[in-house]
Structures
1.
Amino acid sequence: MSIRKGKPYPYGIHVKDMKELCAESPIIKMPAPKKVYISMSQHIGAPAIPVVNVGDKVTKRQLIGKESGMISANVFSSICGTVTAIEDIVTASGLKMKHVVIENDGRDEEIFFDNIADFEPKTIIERIRLAGIVGLGGAGFPTAVKLSPSTKLDTLVINGAECEPYLNCDYRLMIENTEDIYRGVKYAAMALGIKKIIIGIEANKPKAIEAFSKYDDIEVVVLKKQYPMGSEKHLIYCTTGKKVPCGKMPFDVGCCVQNIKTVIAIKHAIEDNKALSSTVLTVSGKGIKTPMNLRIQIGTPLEDIIEFCGGLVGETVKIISGGPMMGKGMIGTKSFTRKTNSGYLFLTKEETSLEEPTNCINCGVCAKNCPMRLMPMYIESYALNGDYANAEKYGAMNCIECGSCAYNCPAKRSLVQSISLAKNKIKEMKKNGR
Ligand code: SF4
Ligand code: SF4
């Protein structure tokens, strides 16, 4: 058993965590819906290509979308049924994506991979690729690629921080599925050829800290409750003391960070021969009758989830996919569970600010709160004036879109949206050679 305190990080903010709404609610398996809408773009990179046709009968965990390139991921059916449509759907996130629609026929069957041939790194990575596993903390980067760095790494860091307010799915998994996480972590370490394994857990999760303290080969690092502790760079600094320089990646300092749900998916792919077909997420906020932590089949409509949680109560003024800091606001409820979903929040007036932004008063609070030491007010101003060259000069591309700058801005400026826009424009300009 090895437990130590994490290195203090002087920047970042303290947010009201609201986790009490369902932190002590065990994960419940939601029954499979009548229909699933499975997106072919649930990851970073090229969309998967449908390999089924309308009218086909499919079985749970059958391949329905094939990866299309190096950075892509396979997609599997989450239920047994008949493919009724393959169509582009504009969801409540405002994005148009190809979905395979499957009508449930009630069969209780599933398809498994063969037993893994050996536990060589190459074989483990290949199984992870086949199973369609991507970073399930939200990033969606294909895990097989992340586990195949071009340089030798020395430390595997497991992200048990879950610093986003309201969300409890990682916490529940850490105390309910500790052994699955442990076994998945060991396979990830085998794939990387790494011996040093650290799990970083925020101090407000004592049961999770205790659960992992029984393993001799994982070091538990207790992190201060601070936002954004779960960001890769901050997690690496607080758990290992290593600084990931601006513009560099964790592998540049010998580290690989993996999320809790991702390592569980790895365990299921290697030991249980299962492709990824479900996820665990938190449904919370004062606008939903019963906040819950749910295991859900991928492709489940949000409207079914709302019904399962007892419906909406009071006046929900904002629906968010993910946490309130880094999640995305949604227009309505036309949304379908994806591999990377960590939660849905239904926030009432008292939980969110709807105030209109006013002029910046140059108070400097946003710069003081920025964990990346940026000057958000300047980047925003350049972005709004279309001066993307200066936005880049002021470090827009180093912004991790954590929302700390906007959290306490007295003028309620939409800093993250402006910086995110600048980042997209800068990327576009570079792509076009400007
Ligand atoms: S916190 Fe808001 S008002 Fe203060 S400097 Fe930053 S953008 Fe301006
Ligand atoms: S500028 Fe970016 S990194 Fe800095 S606080 Fe704002 S969102 Fe976070």
Note: The mean pLDDT is 94.
2.
Amino acid sequence: MKDYTLWTLSWAICAIVLLFSSHGAWGLIAGSEHDFSTHAWSEGEICLPCHTPHNADSNIDAPLWNHEMSTAIYTLYSSPTMDVIADQPGAASKVCLACHDGTISIDSFGGMSGSISIGGNADVGTNLADDHPVGIDWNHQTAGSACTTCHPIIWVDSVAIMTFPPTPMFNGKVECPSCHDPHNGFDLPHLVRDTMAGSQLCFNCHGDK
Ligand code: HEC
Ligand code: HEC
Ligand code: HEC
Ligand code: HEC
Ligand code: HEC
């Protein structure tokens, strides 16, 4: 990518960020499903079960990580109609599975050994064969739609700029945070990154299928 393209792109991103942050419905983690501060086990804090300002676990590929990690080996989704093969979940999914695979107590953070299990629907378990695959390569060739289906063009000072869907990849792969924002930045039920009305979240990657 040429330098000037990056330059205009970063300005476009600033413009988009400004546009969104002036929007009243922009979500906050406070009050969301990931705000544990009303539960005694969180010590009344929001960030602490996941992050700590000091003595974080620097082996984990997530900022200032504070939660005990799972060592589970997962049963993976497989399908003859998929172009790609699912791998064990990558680092970006493993931080979610630290609580959501049900093998580690949610209150096992900051070096403490907890006792409260996540339970209910939020426990996705170690069998991921019945879940949308993660740890899979994002292969644009499988999309079969025009670029602008998923990357609408916006005009900034007469310059055409390609926009990006709100569903990011991690090391080029689909992982749990491709569809969910742990901080509730999009203010939607189930912490998703785009609305499920009309299955819009899915179209970000599956195009006009
Ligand atoms: C339930 C777990 C969880 C909670 C609670 C949580 N975070 Fe995070 N946070 C994550 C994960 C996972 C990532 C890395 C993945 C990502 O960026 O989406 C992250 C990334 C970050 C980052 C770096 C990337 C970014 O998005 O800016 C910052 C800064 C951050 N968190 C701050 C906070 C603060 C401040 C709080 C409390 C108000 C908080 N987080 C609460 C899980 C959590
Ligand atoms: C510190 C433990 C912890 C971590 C780490 C964590 N979660 Fe959660 N998460 C929870 C708990 C506890 C709930 C609330 C469950 C409930 O309401 O019963 C929850 C709720 C959710 C929900 C909403 C469930 C619903 O019923 O709508 C989603 C979606 C979710 N988490 C996804 C993620 C993803 C994706 C990540 C990683 C980016 C992540 N979580 C990391 C503990 C965690
Ligand atoms: C079905 C939807 C879809 C279609 C069609 C599509 N993209 Fe993407 N594209 C995405 C998603 C989702 C991402 C990941 C977004 C992110 O990383 O923030 C992405 C990322 C990208 C990136 C960033 C680098 C990368 O590979 O992650 C580029 C460049 C890109 N697309 C170009 C294109 C071009 C050029 C076309 C047409 C030939 C195209 N895309 C068609 C959905 C699509
Ligand atoms: C392809 C997108 C996608 C991926 C990848 C994904 N999720 Fe979800 N997840 C969703 C959607 C959409 C919902 C809401 C389902 C609904 O509306 O009924 C959801 C719901 C949930 C819930 C709420 C409980 C439930 O069953 O409804 C939890 C917890 C959750 N996801 C955790 C995870 C974890 C952990 C990962 C990674 C292993 C993950 N998700 C990967 C899209 C995704
Ligand atoms: C972040 C990008 C992304 C999002 C968002 C997404 N998917 Fe996927 N999904 C993929 C990729 C990549 C594959 C693997 C495609 C392949 O290799 O053929 C896949 C695979 C699948 C498969 C399995 C196909 C097979 O042949 O077995 C189904 C079904 C599916 N997705 C449905 C959904 C639904 C429903 C949603 C919305 C809730 C959704 N996806 C959202 C990226 C995504």
Note: The pocket of heme C (ligand 3) is lined by residues 140, 143, 145, 147, 149-151, 164-165, 167-169, 204-207 (CB under 6 Å).
3.
Amino acid sequence: MSDTNESKQAHWDTIFSAKQDAELGWFEDDCSQTLSFLKNTAISASSTLFLAGAGTSKLVDELINTDANLIINDISAKALEQLSQRLNNTKCQYLHHDLGHSFDKGFDKGFTVDVWIDRAVLHFLLTEKQITHYFENLKSTVKCGGYVLLAEFSNAGATHCAGLAVHRYSENEMQVRLGDNFELINSKQYTFVNPFKQERPYIYALFKRRQ
Ligand SMILES: C[S@@+](CC[C@H](N)C(=O)[O-])C[C@H]1O[C@@H](n2cnc3c(N)ncnc32)[C@H](O)[C@@H]1O
């Protein structure tokens, strides 16, 4: 990893080392908002799901119950370590990678997924180069007929999270960056109330890749 990558990883590792889950500003005990969008994606035991920047999210525990294959990503080795110890599930694969960098660099590009799920990760990528790499990674990975769920701070949302600036999203910007091969299925403005009782407006949008 480059110096920049190492400092980003260190930032997140420090957070996951210092705090319990319920002390994290994005912690969700109840993942039903995300799960309600995923109901439209026909997840089965033969599906492969990509969890971008999964952190230590309880969503992963819910998705294990579907028997799908999970590829669990994060820039933080600490988060992946904590999650793998908690899950203790041999079916999960872990991918330690900064999604602002191309999968070409140091990772076998050969995998494909049925559903790409991102809650509160994409919005931490700030430069055009990082954002472009993220969407290239997504497009090289999601199968035709597969789905993408993006849940990011909306334009009405906070400007910072976890001590970092964020790039806020509209449904339109998501669509433009995904391109015409992705069709919007459903979207919703959703205000998440975090463990500190602060309101965090998100935009949730589910897209389907055309056949
Ligand atoms: C706000 S937390 C959200 C965690 C989880 N998705 C959830 O909803 O609980 C952001 C997560 O993204 C990870 N992350 C931040 N930048 C990343 C990057 N460039 N590539 C991969 N993961 C990243 C962090 O380590 C952290 O786990």
Note: DSSP finds six helices and nine strands in the chain.
4.
Amino acid sequence: MSSKDQNVLMCTFGKEVHEGLTSFPKYLSSKFFYDELGDKLFQKIMDLPEYYLTNAEYDIFQLHKTNILKSFDASKKGFDLIELGAGDGKKTKVLLKELLKESYPVTYHPIDISKHAIDGLVDNLASELSELQVQGQIGEYFEVLDRLKHISDRKKVIMVLGSNIGNLLHPRAIQFLKKLNSVMNTDDEVFIGFDQKKHPQKVLDAYNDKTGVTAAFNKNILTRINRELGGNFDLDAFIHWEVYDPESGTAKSYLVSTKKQTVDIDCLELQVQFEAWESIHTEISQKYDDDTVKWLAEESGFVITDAFSDKDKYYKNYVFKKSE
Ligand SMILES: C[S@@+](CC[C@H](N)C(=O)[O-])C[C@H]1O[C@@H](n2cnc3c(N)ncnc32)[C@H](O)[C@@H]1O
């Protein structure tokens, strides 16, 4: 990453932390969970028995890889596979191996806000799948979309896995999908994972594991503020709290202050007052059904052309194309 890109991400972090902690109610964006430690904690989350999402999407890839790739490029003319929020690419590698095995002409463009994640993934692919063409980019979804238009003249398949879309409430998800639509050509497609509504307890458990890994992941945002912005958050004075509303399908994560306290953030010249039991909202993990996904697609100028589910029907990946 150039030092300019790094500065932009740092400024965005400081600006958004300032905005979120001076608002009422307080909030911080989940996109700031991810740095070296956050990436490692998320990898641990993916291995937790409670976090069904990863296995479900992995199953979909294992079960349906041939048909998924056919839906991407039946004639094997070649395409650019762009992944937004790629993380460690654990599940994507199932598809990438199949693409190589079947000699699809493809360049893989993983994009992520975390420099650590992109550097790790690019290095890992260079050793595990050395024949694959890879061009990693660091950046925020909304900002990198404009760059995508000019990647090449080939067909583009844009993947959004891990139910990353679920971190956005519906109006913001529509804004994101509309922007995606605006950089696509008629033949391009989106391959996107949506975690499905299910037993509310199963959803709650996925974001509130017994071993406390999710709590540590949630608190990593405070660790980052302490380290990168000169904050003095006492991590023991906040608890991780998860709620799920089965009506709207929205799971929300909070950090709750267990006492009245003041936190200084030196780089922002900011003092933040917390009342006892005041919350910071940190993450949304939206759950969906077919009707909601169809509505989101239509609102954003897409049609659903295919869908793939795991055996338990916990999770679905949909193929979106631009509507005529
Ligand atoms: C829940 S993880 C999922 C990772 C991967 N897609 C998977 O399914 O395993 C979310 C990933 O998206 C990245 N991310 C989150 N918000 C982002 C944003 N606004 N722009 C770019 N990347 C983002 C994070 O750094 C992280 O690697």
Note: The chain has two domains: 3-33+200-286, 52-196+288-322.
